[in-house]
Design brief:
single chain, 214 residues, mainly alpha, 72% helix
Length: 214
Amino acid sequence: MGLGLVPLGLAFGVFVTQSGLAWWWASAFAALIYAGSFEFLLVGLVAAVAPLGTVALTALLVNVRHVFYTLSFPLHRVSGRFAKAYSTFALTDEAYALTTSEQARSWPGRRILWLQLFMHLYWAGGATAGGLLGSFIPDGVTGLDFALTALFTVLALDALRERRGDLPTPVLALLSALVARLVLPHQMLLAAFALFTAALLIRHFTARKRSRRA
């Protein structure tokens, strides 16, 4: 996963410089914000000198999904206030996907923390290299804007492979996304997460009632 973040960081760094910003903006965004998809949106907002309120609202809408991540992210295994604070800051989609998998249930807090740190370094290093090399890469290179989507696709496929016997979960996720796309297309991500969480809770309580009756 870390190696996958390097070309993604390179794509982000190139995107920063080709948007008219200095190369060090890529390093600053990657090190201090570290929010993946929001960083790509932030480049356009900074280049357009968007109001601070617009930036804050965009950050909230894009990253509110992390509220749902906290429901199952194993933060309780991480010891120490500083370590917990950094682990919370470094909770990305990729870190969540890896630390909540079946094989990660036995991982100690130290391994989770080191995993997040190295992923942060991979991302920041790739972004810095992309920013420095961005001026040498011609405009119009195709594929860079698809890097983030490709990474999420790989994560989704890995999750499906681990849960081959759990068909209802991906079906619920797909239905939640479709309903959110039709009902609230401008707030699709938030609506899809809310619907999916509600569906999982209903299924959980329904299954527990059935087990009690049995």
